[in-house]
Each structure stands twice: as structure tokens, then as C-alpha cells.
Design brief:
Strand order of the largest sheet: 3-2-4
Structural class: alpha+beta
Order of helices and strands: HHEHHEEEHH
Helix content: 40-55%
Oligomer: single chain
Bound molecules: fe (ii) ion
Radius of gyration: 18 Å
């Protein structure tokens, strides 16, 4: 199983420069390459039907590393996939995302305040709005690095990268809030809402 890096045409975003995006795409391609390399090496360690005891240390470390690289690849695809040129600041009233927020939160403003607060948390990671497949409710989560903090089975709906590489070319480190505002002005709500639909199908299947 090999993954191919996807192409995202995002030049011309507001407040997130093309230079930042070019560097970010290269980092993403690195996660794809590392995921493929780790997967291949792990398969090699299993080629005789089991892992040799002498290779268990290597196997364990590579398996742990795969969680970092694989989530790094997938989360960047969600992130680039929910941005677009001429994006809109907020979801339309009555849209699937607003409906899901209204069913989960006292107001859209409270949901957004919580998401932004998660994005401002100190540390290296991601702010992710997820849907609980059992209830359809939305919640905002802090994901440390790429792999720590996910709730099993929850579906990522809106994904924001807040590692410094996502904005440090355009803003000072202390100005992460300005990057978060730029992120919100470039959102592709149709892409976000296509994930909501998946969430609903997931709930029906459960
Ligand atoms: Fe990133």
C-alpha cells in the first residue's frame, strides 16, 4: 500500500501567503513519503510471518513513529481540503454545519469562541471540530502533535493546523490569533459540510 501526495490549488488565499503554502505542501509531502517508507519497512520486518525478537525494538519504534507520520499526512489533507480561494467567513444559516452546531451548542458564537480558544492553546498541534458518530454532536478538540487526543471513531469536520510552520512566515509567533482569523476567512464550507454528511452516514451505520 503506497500513498500518493495530493495536489491542492490554494494560491491567492487571504492572509496565508503562497510561500507559506509552498513550504507547507513540501512538509505534507514529507509525511506521505515517511508513511510509505515506514509501512514498507514494517512489512519487511513481518516477511517471515512474525517479528524476530531481536527486531522488536525497531518494530516498536517504527510502529509508534507511523502514528505520527500517518496522522500528519491525513490531517494535512483535511486542512488543505477545507481551505479555498474566495472562501467565506462563516457557514450559511440553515446549512448542515450550522444545524449540527445548533444541535450541539447554545449558539454558533459559543462554538466558534471555543474552537478559536482551542486554536490559541500553547503547544504544537491542531484544533479540530469533530462529530460524534453516535449522537451527531460536534465538539472541538486539541490534538497534540498529530496523533495524541483523537477520540476513537469521531469524524474530523473542520481541521486547523496551528503548528508554527502554518503561519510563522506571515505572522510573529505571538500573533497566532491573526492567523486563526485568516484561516476563518478562507474556509470552504462545502468541503466541511461534505464531511458532516459522512458523519451522518456513519451514525446511521452504527
Ligand atoms: Fe502543518
Amino acid at each position: 500500500m503506497r500513498y500518493n501526495a495530493r495536489h491542492f490549488d490554494l494560491s491567492g488565499l487571504k492572509g496565508i501567503s503562497d510561500e507559506t503554502l509552498e513550504q507547507h505542501f513540501k512538509l505534507y509531502e514529507g509525511y506521505v513519503a515517511q508513511t510509505n517508507a515506514l509501512t514498507a519497512r514494517l512489512a519487511e520486518l513481518l516477511k517471515n510471518g512474525g517479528v524476530d525478537e531481536k527486531k522488536m525494538l525497531e518494530f516498536s519504534e517504527l510502529k509508534r513513529r507511523l502514528g505520527f507520520e500517518h496522522n500528519g499526512m491525513v490531517l494535512h489533507e483535511y486542512y488543505f481540503g477545507n481551505l479555498r480561494k474566495h472562501g467565506e467567513r462563516g457557514p450559511a444559516r440553515g446549512s448542515p454545519f450550522r444545524e449540527a452546531v445548533d444541535a450541539s451548542w447554545p449558539s454558533y458564537q459559543k462554538w466558534e469562541a471555543d474552537f478559536v480558544a482551542v486554536g490559541k492553546m500553547r503547544g504544537v498541534g491542531w484544533a479540530i471540530c469533530c462529530q460524534d458518530p453516535a449522537t451527531g454532536h460536534l465538539c472541538n478538540q486539541w490534538i497534540e502533535m498529530h496523533e495524541s487526543g483523537h477520540v476513537a471513531g469521531f469524524v474530523p469536520i473542520l481541521v486547523m493546523d496551528v503548528w508554527e510552520h502554518a503561519f510563522i512566515h506571515d505572522y510573529a509567533a505571538k500573533d497566532r490569533p491573526k492567523y486563526i482569523e485568516a484561516f476563518f476567512s478562507n474556509l470552504d464550507w462545502r468541503a466541511v459540510e461534505s464531511r458532516i454528511a459522512k458523519g451522518k452516514r456513519h451514525a446511521a451505520a452504527a
